[in-house]
Amino acid sequence: MTRKKILGSHVKRLLSGVSDHGKRHLTEVETDLLQTNLLLEEAIDKLTRNFMAIHDAVNAQQTTIQMLLDGGNPTPEQKEKLQAMNEQVSSYVNAAITSMQFQDMTSQLIDRTLKRVTGLREFLGTLGTHGAEVMPDSGSDEIVDLLGKVSMALAIQSLELRSVLRKAVSQKHLESGDIELF
């Protein structure tokens, strides 16, 4: 194989590897951000429903409470209804707290996304650092050697980054049990 073909082969492999690595990590970043958005939408929806239910239950209790403040005696039915509303409010508050625990999962997704972006930046930095070593008057053998070193360094970085990043996002000890997403 001629030096020109060897050089072209190394450049092609390097550029293809950089492109594949970048696309793969950017796709994962996009996926993590979409999952984060879905989690936030779901959590906000649940929080809104629970806080509105708390508001409705408290408003329903207000009539009986006002009657008590005015010195009236509640009927057994009103006492029962007041007790039931108290239990409802506790249930809604617990559901709201559980919904807020989605923050932990979104935090994990954001942390993973930041690691991906940092890893990609370091990956590109390695490419830039090694690329700066190429001199305009470098011979083919020097360029082939440098491209081999760059390819090896980038492959190692890619494997290290991939091994650091977990695929699953999980929440432990929720009232409803353990949750693992994505």
Short characterization:
This protein has 182 residues and is mainly alpha-helical.
Annotation field: number of helices: 4
Helical proportion, percent range: over 70%
Would you count the extended β strands for me?
A: 2
Mean pLDDT figure: 79
**Largest sheet: number of strands, sense, barrel closure:** 2 strands, antiparallel
CA-to-CA gap between the ends? 47 Å
Strand line-up of the largest beta sheet = 1-2
Query: What would the principal axes of the Cα set say about the shape?
Result: rod-shaped
Topology overview:
Blueprint: H1 3-69, H2 76-100, H3 102-132, H4 140-164, E1 169-174, E2 177-181
Antiparallel strand pairs: 1-2
Helix pairs in contact: 1-2, 1-3, 1-4, 3-4
Can you characterise this structure?
The chain is rod-shaped, with a radius of gyration of 30 Å. The relative contact order is 0.15. It starts with a helix and ends with a strand. It has helices spanning 3-69, 76-100, 102-132, 140-164; strands at 169-174, 177-181. The longest helix is centred in the first third of the chain and has 67 residues, at 3-69. It has 182 residues and is mainly α. Strand 1 and strand 2 form a beta hairpin. The chain has one domain (3-181).
